[in-house]
Amino acid sequence: MSGLRDRLHNFWVDQGFVRLFWTNAAEIAPGVFRSNQPDARRLARMRAQGLRAVLYLRGTDGSAPYRAERQACATLGLQFHSFNMSAHRLPPGDRLLALIDLFRRIERPFLLHCRAGADRTGLASAVYLLAIEGRSVAEAKAMLSLRFGHWSWSSTGVLDQMLHHFEADQRDRGIGFEAWLAEGYDPVAITARFDAMSLRARINQTRA
Length: 208
Prior knowledge:
With about 210 residues, this protein is of the alpha/beta class. The protein has helices at about 1-15, 15-20, 40-50, 65-75, 95-105, 120-130, 135-140, 155-175, 175-185, 185-205, and strands at about 25-30, 30-35, 55, 80, 110-115. A five-stranded mixed sheet has the order 1-2-5-3-4, with helices on both faces. The termini are far apart.
């Protein structure tokens, strides 16, 4: 009975019905894929194409989506890793460094995803490109875009601000991404500036 409840929750409450018709799947680097939450059938198709592991970015909350995906991975023989990220809050530097360490250990090919595959997945993909692939900030920023369903003008725009601040520090100081996370990254200050910018934008819209 609990399995039926989980399936109903995942289909209706977790918007699984939307993902029947739309997916923002993409290969962001050799053997590294991103998407919105896959169902067991999509995971089975990817497993048949060589997928080895899944990185679930919604945390270990014991929810219906978590239980269903962990079971699907066990059935398919896929490694299952979970990591908690937020779409509306910047992670501390040590958490992002832990994510990078996980990227270095995870078996490839692997899939990383959250629910919608837009915000948490976008930031994680950007971190992967910067830290593991050594890509440019411009390429990392493209991971947080409308193409994947990310709305930079909403509260999730705080994720974009992290990349903007790194880009400025990299230009001014020549600092690398992991060194910046350890020494120059200040999520509290970045969030405060973003909140102030958002407040000014709302005030200007009211006056217009």
